[in-house]
Structures are given as structure tokens and as C-alpha cells.
Amino acid sequence: xxxCLLGGGTFFSFSLGMACRAAKLPVSSAGGxxxxxxxxxxxxxxxxxxxxxxxxxxxVAWVGMPIAPVPTIKEAMKRTELTKRYCIAEDKQFRLxxxxxxxxxxxxxxxxxxxxxxxxxxxxxxxxxxxxxxDQWALxxxxxxxxxxxxxxxxxxxxxxxNPQGCQVTSFKAPSAEELDHDFMWRTTRRLPERGRIGIFxxxxxxxxxxxxxxxxLLAGQKLSPSLVTKDLWHERYQxxxxxxxxxxxxxxxxxxxxxxxxxxxxRERLLSRLEQPEKQWKFSLDDIRERKKWGAYMRAYExxxxxxxxxxxxxxxxxxxxxxxxxxxxxxxxxxxLESLELSYPxxxxxxxxxxxxxxTALRINQA
Length: 369
Known about the structure:
The chain is of the alpha/beta class. It has helices at 10-22, 35-43, 49-62, 73-85, 110-134, 151-158, 177-180, 186-189, 211-214, 233-250, 264-276, 286-292, 295-309, 324-340, 351-365, and strands at residues 87-88, 138-145, 167-171, 198-202, 253-261, 316-320.
């Protein structure tokens, strides 16, 4: 029902019923959704962003205000199917080999994804404005990947329509002397997003179970007591990270984590491209080649990390990254899905405030202000 008003609750109940039928959940005899159906829709992990949007649309329609077009059932279920394909949560048997870096789902070309991505970026812009205005939630997006996997480009394209005032990007490089004098999560904790904002970590505290694990000599620089550096160190850090992300979630910070899964062959092509194109040569570093030689160790570290830190409240999305256009589409859809699940809305204006605004409007119209 794009571009129209939704009348009352009948259309909502019927449409929610259609969504529940599609997921084989209970519906009432009148064709609407039962409470059990809607509840199980959420409980079973098949949260339909369209349903959340429709709920908000119903509330707006009751007061007679125009609403923005809402996603169709087909669009919402398509998004859910796409994001669920790459979502990892509570899976101790996860294997990186289960997801091909060159996978593009049902899409065959960049042109097929273009319109879908544009819609996602536009929807993300709308949701970010509401997130900022409501000022109750924050969204933390974490990006991890091997060099040349496309983190910078993905962030740039997906967040292209977002108001810079409501978004902050932090790139974490090698820790400074000051940062090494603190616990391993200190420097990232200082950069957490405020309520109403989207925070993006380009690399993060996960480096402490990736780079430091592949290069154990880096532990010496962290000034830890030898009694703390045991065979259980990495699992203890996984536990600390899980506890921290649960804490964030309980305090209104939604956490979504992305591993951009690029193949070794595609990384090689991108590194060669950096060398051959003058405008990209500044990106190249010999460290990229040194780290590439440890590809196997990094893949094992990533796999173990995802197995132990992918939770229902802070899932990992292992996103195929050999095709940049597909990577950007998946990331955009995950972010939109996360924000639509929050039932965001603009703050309600009190009766007293409405009177004040009416007086100001009147004064402006008769040129007395």
C-alpha cells in the first residue's frame, strides 16, 4: 500500500495475518494475526521488519497523518531470507568454508542489486533520523576483515545517505603507549556511540583475539602479568567480550558485527590493483603482504572467534566479499532490519507544547514575531 493512508487496525490485523501465514504461524478465524502468531514470529528469530513498520504505520494512520511507503510482505521476507543466510548466532560448529566468498545468493549481477541497495540506503537514512530524534537507542556496527576486503568502501557506500551528525566512524590502528597501559577494551569503550547515534568500528576489540593471537609476541607489549597469560587466555577474552556485548544490549546499544569474507585470490587481485593504479598506491603497505603469508592462521583465528562470540543478542554476519556490490547490499539490509526491529518513532509533543507552537505559528502568520 505505498503512498496512501492506512485506515484503522483492520488492514493491519489482516496484513499481519498474511505475514504469519507466510511463516506458517497461527492466525485468527477472521484472518488476522493471533497474539501467539505474532509472538512466535519474534521468538523463532524470524522478526519481519515489515511487521514492525506496519505497526508504526497503524499508529500514525489513527491520527490522520500521511505516512511514508511501507515495505511489502514480499520485500520484508526477501530481506529476512537474505540476512538470515549469513547470520551466525550460537553456532559452535560454524565453519568459514560453509560460506563462499564469491556467493551472491540469487543475484547474478550488480545491476540486479542496484535498485535494492538504493532503497536500502534511503530507508536507512529515514530510520537514522528517527533514531536520532527518539534518543533512546544506539547502534554499534563492527567491521572486521582481512586487508583489501572492502571495509572502507562498504562503510562509505552504505552510510552515504546518513546525516553525519548522527553517525561516528572510528578506525582502530595499532594501540598507542597510553592504550597499552589500560585493559584491552579501554580504547574502544571510549568510542561507543551515544543514544540516538550509529557508531561504526572499523576494526575493534576483536583485534585482541585475531592479530594478537596470530602474533603472540604482541602480548609482551600489553604488560600483563605472566600469571594471566595462560592457555585459557583467548577463551577468557571471548567470555569478556560476550559479557561486554550483553551489557551493551541491556543498556540500549544494539550490536551487529560483520566479517567481510574475501577469498585469498580476490585479495591478491585487489592488492595488485593498488600497486598498478596511482590513485590507490597510498593504500598499499608491505604489512599487507606479511599478513597475507599468515592467511591460514588468520582464517583459523576468525573461525574460532566467530564460533565463540556469535550470540543471539550480538550476532556475526559473515558476508561474502568477493563482489563489493553484494557485500554492500547485505550490510545495508542487516542495518535496516536491526533498526526496524526497534519500533522507532518521533517524540510525541505534549498538549502544552502544541499550544505554544500554535501561538508561535499565529504570531508568524500576522508578522508579529
